[in-house]
Write a structure and sequence with these properties.
By secondary structure, this protein is mainly α. It is 78% helix and 0% strand. The protein has 14 helices and no strands. The longest helix is centred in the first third of the chain and has 44 residues. The chain is globular, with a radius of gyration of 19 Å.
């Protein structure tokens, strides 16, 4: 049976949607990895964008050639029986951890924006994520592709307002708080940020690559996906730097910034943010469960529901703490994965 022909837009949008989520759209990731570095944060973002484009393409193409249904085929091919197995276990662990962070992020929005208990937001996100993942990979791709353009528009509007109302552009050059950053070196921040997100994204990118037969579409999808991620993160970084150090006091910095200009805009961005958290939550949950069991079996449904319940309980740890401590650790683990992919490309000529 011939493979479906996804459009370049669908591939790029799914790539972007898998990466963005509670950490990205809220501004918390950009703050932790780049905002505290001030002007040097832009260099770190450029490094991250290059890695997103290059390795995003590697993963998509390997997924295509190996007819991947999860990240396992790609990781084992690139890393070998020993190296690949280690990376596989790391990915499984952090897919679950990132899904938990998405639930915590929704709870933080419900508390900061609506004054509601965090548990309400977390429960809501857990339920709709589980329901989507139960529909399989097709439902996950459709959901993610639909939401991405809405996020980019929202980020653009808030960031443009921040630039327009910026009292003094020189303030950006005076911001430098690397001691508070998740990764103290701005160059390493870019590497860790990209590798962390790729570690999480491989669970969707690998099977996504198997959804089309054209290499050119995968290449352009990775290119536009990487550029889209860079552009969105750059706009968020500008908005945050023009509102430092006040923005650093909030779990959801972009909501604070949006609220400075309009309560209506703040409310709209809240819903956009929730939608983006949803895209990453379903990507992480699908990747986690698809690795553990056959997606066409009854176990798939059981594992999906049980995983949602356990993550919901652990989400009480708190969103900003999860970003600060778990994400950098996952980033270093992601570097191990990138080394494995590079080895697979150069030594084994898998691409």
């Amino acid at each position: 049976m011939s493979k479906k022909e996804l459009s370049v837009f669908s591939i790029a949008a799914t790539y972007i949607g898998t990466v963005v989520g509670a950490g990205f759209a809220s501004g918390q990731e950009v703050l932790q990895f780049f905002g505290f570095h001030g002007i040097r944060g832009f260099i770190g973002l450029f490094v991250a964008a290059f890695i997103f484009i290059l390795y995003g393409y590697f993963i998509l193409l390997l997924g295509n050639r190996l007819n991947a249904v999860s990240h396992y085929e790609v990781i084992m091919k690139a890393g070998g029986p020993v190296f690949g197995k280690i990376i596989d276990y790391v990915i499984i662990f952090f897919l679950f951890g990132a899904f938990t962070a998405m639930l915590a992020g929704t709870g933080a929005i419900f508390k900061e924006q609506f004054g509601l208990p965090t548990q309400i937001g977390s429960v809501m996100m857990a339920v709709i994520s589980v329901m989507t993942v139960l529909t399989g990979i097709a439902g996950v791709i459709s959901a993610i592709s639909f939401v991405v353009p809405i996020l980019l528009i929202g980020v653009f509007v808030v960031s443009v307002l921040a630039i327009f109302y910026m009292p003094d552009i020189a303030v950006i050059g005076r911001i430098s708080m690397p001691f508070d950053a998740a990764v103290k070196n701005f160059f390493m921040s870019g590497i860790i940020y990209a590798s962390y997100n790729l570690l999480m994204s491989v669970a969707i990118l690998a099977p996504l690559g198997n959804e089309t037969s054209k290499k050119s579409k995968l290449k352009m999808g990775a290119l536009f996906g990487g550029i889209g991620l860079w552009l969105g993160a750059t706009m968020i970084l500008i908005a945050i730097l023009t509102n430092m150090p006040k923005a650093a006091q909030y779990q959801i910095p972009m909501l604070y910034i949006a609220g400075k200009y309009s309560e209506t805009l703040k409310l709209i961005y809240s819903f956009i943010l929730i939608a983006e958290i949803y895209t990453t939550a379903v990507g992480n949950l699908y990747g986690f469960v698809a690795r553990l069991t056959d997606t066409k079996s009854i176990k798939y449904k059981i594992y999906t529901i049980v995983t949602g319940g356990i993550a919901l309980i652990l989400s009480n740890f708190g969103f900003s703490k999860l970003v600060h401590y778990m994400y950098p650790v996952a980033g270093y683990a992601g570097i191990v994965m990138l080394i494995g992919l590079t080895y697979g490309v150069i030594k084994k000529k898998t691409i």
